[in-house]
Prior knowledge:
By secondary structure, the protein is an all-alpha fold.
Amino acid sequence: MAIAFPLGNWLGRSGAWRGRGWFLGITSFVAVVGFTAFPPSLAFLLDRGLRNTTSVGTYSDIVRLDRDLWTVAAPRSPGVVNAEPFPDAGELLSPPDVLWRMILTLLALMLVAVVLDRLLWRVRRHRLPPVAAVGTVFGGSWAVVAAAGWGSYAADILGTISLLVLGIILIFYGEMQLVTEAAMEDAVDEDHVLTARAKGLTDRRIRDRHAARSALLPVLSRLVVSLPYFLTGLAILESVFEVPGGLGNLVFNAIRNQDTPVIVGSMVVIGALALLARLVLDVLYAVLDPRIRYGSGRLEVEVG
């Protein structure tokens, strides 16, 4: 979702602002197909496509964790001596441990990219180029992972979840692009956009700071509504790609086994995340649209 949302938002606002060229026409077609596709059929096509383009051994290496690689993180058994310890001060790490460290590293470098963008704007009145931002986040993350000595473990995890992540991106980015494009088409004719044009602001500034800002409100609303679905509704993708650690698989197996505590606990976590997302959305509404203010128990819109 962290990949699909910015991608769909950028393509949607670009397409609505300057019209579709050949590139945006292709991306719009992919967006419609991804948005309307039945998730099981999309999972089948991705899985079958990888099987047909690779050998059996390569396919197995991509979609499954390498058991030989992770034997160092196996639990200790009486009388059994484990293999050489994990190359992190002798600490034994499991795939979730490495995955969380990858995520935290990525988030830290995203924060670094935001700080660099702000500093560059204050000093030079220029934004950090998108290529530099992407290089800072993803290139820096991989450099940290490689320097820590667990690059092969990270590569194994990324290969295992690659098809699942690609499937979710195709479904989610299509929805975001279509919703953003529709919202932008309405925003370009609003009074504050016409006022910005009359002031002589550049097209890029009008698009990013005025039209896209108001068009972001329905997109964020759609994001919050879709969040519970993407947490639990894609269990079929996790089953097809054999990703046992997903939340959707956890809920699905708990329902099948009638494991009430796990079902209730999962629903509590999903409900809490949905409520938190709704709270963040309410705050962002007031930040993005200065006309919106929250009064005593109801939403107030300032006019004039």
